[in-house]
Design goal:
This protein is an alpha/beta fold. It contains 20 helices and 18 strands. It has a 5-stranded parallel β-sheet with strand order 2-1-3-6-7, sandwiched between helices. The radius of gyration is 27 Å and the shape is flat. The protein starts with a strand and ends in a 12-residue tail after the last helix. About 5% of the residues have low confidence.
Length: 479
């Protein structure tokens, strides 16, 4: 490498390590611990690349990035920060940074980035920092979330298609909403549609609308594509699209236009598509259940969301955030102890962030003290029927007897005390969820047959699927 690198960081140790590494790589290095010195060197024409921290003793380095880019538009600026939030990544990108590296970073990665910056002329368009002071509903500073933030930051000013993958409860819609709210279509509508909850014969009408003509009567229904005109259409659980609807969606993406079901008028599609799924689409492609060409149309930029177990260090930030939301909704103000956080970190969160949020909301309602203790958390976790010891299986045991045994063990967990109020609804939900999930699996995801099997209305079934957050997979028998 050949060139002069300005290193700006208030941590003397980091300045020393970077200066030695860059010098060994062949660079000339000037280092400082203040923004004022950094700005003076920029004005004097010093440096071919800047490597800077964000928070310095005399200010925020991101505040002066627009001024640096205006004065020296060809000067690459690499931003590094221990404030590893999505907003830091977005601000760094919007203010003209060449690259953003969350601390702690790999020294080899930084040297590679500096080398690339020295060997190409990068003129980043100046952007107004419109997001400073705004916040996103994406919480966490774990390493697992950093790559998500970096990809999101690079997508904010593009119209590229995005495919968000991740287990149920990881926050896929929150990411889609953030990409829209801070992107170039933020003034347009954000329309979300969960394809898993729509009957197969209604999906095309739901997406593209319909024209109905009869003697003396013309009527039309506007679909999600028209509703999202000029904005973003979020297709959640896109793996549940029937093949016929997949073909029509592919034509719309290729041609940029469509017509309503039963209609002939051509409607121009000015919509950005963000799709999401918890399923393995490549596996569905191999099974012939998902079109490969549609997959590549949707999967331009993939974002994989980690499970809560992969970002368990975010439990503290998430818990405090959910308590703040609960307070904003009128619930009593609560704080959570460090010991309680440790208990939460030891749990297995099969329902991911959504499961944690539900537990925190219950604690906010039921905990009598202002501080949520480890004991409060333990009691609430044990209060869930699913936490009770499993009854001994007996082939001759009736369902009623099995449930009675289960409930007896549940009451025994509380000794002489009573379980928390609301037991009736909790027990019904515990029974209802596997009943509906297994019935859907037995009918291969056919909601009409499932409703008939259960003896309930199809609309009632749809509401139950949504409220219980049951993932529906069509065409695959799971039992």
């Amino acid at each position: 490498m050949d060139g002069t690198v300005i290193v700006a960081d208030d941590d003397r140790t980091i300045r020393t390590v970077l200066s030695q590494a860059l010098t060994r790589a062949g660079c000339r290095v000037r280092s400082t611990g203040t923004i004022s010195t950094l700005w003076r060197w920029v004005e004097e024409g010093e440096g071919d690349v800047i490597v800077t921290d964000v928070m310095m003793p005399d200010g925020d380095a991101l505040d002066i990035l627009p001024a640096i880019k205006k004065r020296r538009p060809d000067l690459p600026i690499i931003v590094m920060s221990a404030q590893n939030t999505v907003m830091t990544a977005i601000r760094a990108t919007e203010t003209g940074a060449y690259e953003y590296l969350p601390k702690p970073f790999d020294l080899k990665d930084l040297l590679t980035t500096v080398n690339k910056a020295l060997n190409q002329n990068t003129t980043a368009p100046q952007q107004e920092d419109e997001t400073q002071g705004e916040s996103l509903p994406l919480i966490g500073r774990s390493p697992a979330m950093q790559e998500v933030y970096r990809i999101m930051a690079r997508l904010m000013h593009t119209d590229l298609g995005v495919m968000i993958t991740g287990a149920s409860g990881t926050g896929k819609e929150l990411v889609a909403q953030a990409l829209h709210s801070f992107g170039q279509r933020k003034k347009g509508p954000f329309i979300a549609v969960n394809l898993a909850t729509i009957p197969a014969d209604m999906i095309e009408i739901e997406l593209f609308g319909s024209e109905r003509r009869s003697p003396g009567v013309d009527s039309s229904a506007i679909g999600k594509f028209e509703q999202a005109d000029g904005g973003t259409l979020f297709l959640d659980e896109v793996g549940d699209l029937p093949l016929e609807a997949q073909s029509r969606l592919l034509r719309v993406l290729q041609e940029g236009e469509f017509s309503r079901v039963g209609g002939h008028e051509t409607i121009i599609s000015d919509v950005r598509i963000i799709a999401a799924t918890h399923q393995d689409l490549r596996g569905l492609i191999n099974e012939g259940k998902f079109r490969e060409d549609l997959f590549y149309r949707l999967n331009v930029v993939p974002i994989r969301l980690p499970t809560l177990q992969e970002r368990i260090e975010d439990v503290a930030d998430l818990s405090r955030h959910f308590l703040q939301l609960a307070e904003a909704q009128g619930l009593p103000r609560k704080i959570i102890s460090k010991e309680a956080i440790e208990v939460l970190k030891q749990q297995i969160w099969t329902g991911n962030v959504r499961e944690l949020e539900n537990l925190i909301n219950r604690l906010a309602v039921l905990c009598p003290d202002e501080t949520i203790s480890a004991k409060n958390v333990t009691q609430e976790i044990e209060a869930r029927p699913s936490s009770a010891l499993a009854p001994t299986h007996n082939g001759a045991e009736s369902l009623s007897t099995s449930i009675e045994s289960h409930l007896k063990r549940y009451f025994d967990l509380h000794g002489n005390a009573l379980p928390p109020a609301g037991l009736y609804d909790r027990i019904l939900k515990e029974v209802e969820l596997p009943l509906i999930a297994l019935s859907l699996a037995a009918t291969r995801g056919n909601q009409l047959k499932t409703a008939e099997l259960l003896g309930i209305n199809r609309n009632t079934l749809r509401k139950k699927i949504a409220s219980l957050d049951i993932q529906v997979t069509r065409g695959k028998k799971l039992m």
